[in-house]
Amino acid sequence: MVQASRTRFKDDILYSCLEASAEQWPSVVLAHLSRWLFFIEGCLTCSVATVAFYIVPDFPGTPTSWLTLEEQILAQKRMEEDASGVRPELSKSSQASGLVKALTDWTVWWLAVALAVLNASMSFLSFFPTLVATMGYSSTITLLLCTPPSILAFVTAIIVVRHSDMTRDRFWHIAASMLPGIVGFVSASLTMNNTIRYISL
Predict the structure, then answer these.
(1) Which of 9-13, 55-59, 109-113, 189-193 is least confident?
(2) In terms of DSSP H, where are the helices of 22-138?
(3) What single string gives the DSSP state of each residue in 126-190?
(4) Which residues lie below 8 Å from residue 114, measured CB to CB, with a gap of 6+?
(5) How confident is the model at residue 124 (pLDDT cuts 50, 70, 90)?
(6) What pTM was estimated for this model as a whole?
(7) Fewer CB within 10 Å: C terminus or N terminus of the chain?
(8) What Rg value do the Cα atoms of the chain yield, rounded?
(9) Quick one: pLDDT band at residue 134, thresholds 50, 70, 90?
């Protein structure tokens, strides 16, 4: 989830800044801008994946030059702790029976509904420039105004995730992170003041 957030925030920042600066570019350049952006991002992704293929070990116990023996032991211990709650009889069950158990477990459906609602509530990000444009600014200013919230969201996500990892807590970090979003949605729907609307976004 964190990786997806990083990618989304990176794209929001990159595209907002480029589109804002593209107001003065020739139309021929603008016609191919999106294609080149996808091409450049795809090349960078493939390059990183190729390097990672040779650097990242298959298993924590695989000898590597950049992991000490203590770090390998720690990684193996964490994998064992993650698997400690899995019962042996469940690991031997067939895929079909696992599917049936998943489909008949109410918590799976509850989590699916919660995830769908969460994704729906975040869908406004796709229309963020349109929402900012309703404040009456020019297209260049509108696109530049889309960048600070993405940077703030990116930094906040990193801080929350690191603190959550240090404190070994998940629930309160997730719940507390949703509270500003709730306040923002309510604030944006109750006022037409540009400052409050922008902060609420």
Answers:
(1) 9-13
(2) 27-55, 69-82, 88-91, 95-103, 106-121, 128-133
(3) GGHHHHHHTT---HHHHHHHTHHHHHHHHHHHHHHHHHHHHHT--HHHHHHHHHHHHHHHHHHHH
(4) none
(5) confident
(6) 0.54
(7) N
(8) 22
(9) confident
